[in-house]
């Protein structure tokens, strides 16, 4: 089968190769990949900035497709089913996190596209527990980016538990931020999306998808606008989705006293200028939100089935697998919202 392989550590070091098609064992499921999204972590992998990758490795972890084959002990999915999959391939099964089905926190977790071969290929192997059969109302294209939507669901509905009429500021109008905005609107929160000038089209999309206010922080006074929007109180929540060091400086200016920062974005370096005095003096809360867990996927797919999330609206380019270089170039240029590869025709 054709697969986009990260040959070794370093910048790029990727080739489209013919590799052996996997054979599912026991409770494994082989999926014929129709669509697979390019994530920010894939770009970190392309640049050689993600040290958790075990090369040689096929990248990619956001995908949808058709079940090609199943292992002998699989009972919950059949060949030919339209599916998407969680990114967990294996865990220790014994730690406290595993017992609570919080696989995202298992220290021995193996992820699709990071420790085992991923979805930038004609076929990808996953496990039965991670598979979700799609409702007929969810297209394969929409389902290909279930994973980034689930990240927003985990952060806002499971970790923060945002409620109707609460004010939430999203910093970073990338795919994660735009998915999150729709999730927050599904519970009737009041949403403000903050970006910079080069995010103009993404901010426009955020507004079209229901955000109550969008702000270009380079040309507008974001703090003043948020204060006015909240009658000088400040936002209840701020979701940091950019992973950009300069963004962290103003976070607490957006929040009310005892407000909550939910950190979703992953930073390129560990040292960032977080206002520690504000945390103490204003009794601020900080929550970390790492990817998602099985319960998140059920919530996410239900929102998608109800039509509360328009994921296809965020997919602005689709490339065949053979044009992976152009696809990655477009992602890094920031010209598109979400770029998807198509290894196989539906």
From TrEMBL:
Under InterPro entries, the record lists: ADH-like_C, ADH-like_N, ADH_Zn_CS, ER, GroES-like_sf, NAD(P)-bd_dom_sf, Zn_alcohol_dh
Q: Fetch the SMART domains from UniProt.
A: PKS_ER (SM00829)
Highest taxon of the source?
A: Bacteria
Q: Name one GO molecular function term.
A: zinc ion binding
The record's listing under Pfam families reads: ADH_N, ADH_zinc_N
CDD domains, alphabetized = Zn_ADH4 (cd08258)
The answer on whether this UniProt entry bears the keyword Ribonucleoprotein reads no
Sequence ranges assigned to domain Enoyl reductase (ER) in this UniProt record: 10-341
Q: Which UniProt keywords apply?
A: Metal-binding, Oxidoreductase, Zinc
> What are the required cofactors?
Zn(2+)
Q: Which family does it belong to?
A: Belongs to the zinc-containing alcohol dehydrogenase family.
State the name under which the record lists this protein: Chlorophyll synthesis pathway protein BchC
Q: What is the lineage of its organism?
A: Bacteria, Bacillati, Bacillota, Bacilli, Lactobacillales
